[in-house]
Amino acid sequence: MEAGEGTELLVHQGSLVLIPMLTGLNLEFQERVENRQKLEFNKMKDEREERHSQVLKPRKEERVIKRKMLYYLKTVEERLNRLREEE
């Protein structure tokens, strides 16, 4: 057995061991990347929803106030009309 043949065999056997290890590491790395991307996406989604709610909440409050004001004005107007009819 020559030194070159033995070394070649060891490298070849080592390659067989390293290939599954590298494949496992690549899968683990890919999973970590995917998890990080999902976290970032969810964070951006939450931030977007928060901004939307900050914009929409005052608008909704304005609509509610306007609706209440219109209702109040309508009831006052009806009361005045009834008083006029009674006179």
TrEMBL record:
Q: Which domain of life is it from?
A: Eukaryota
Keywords recorded for this protein, A-Z: Proteasome
What Gene Ontology terms describe where this protein resides (cellular component)?
proteasome complex
Name the UniProt record assigns to this protein: Proteasome component (PCI) domain-containing protein
Whose protein is this, by species? Answer: Artemisia annua
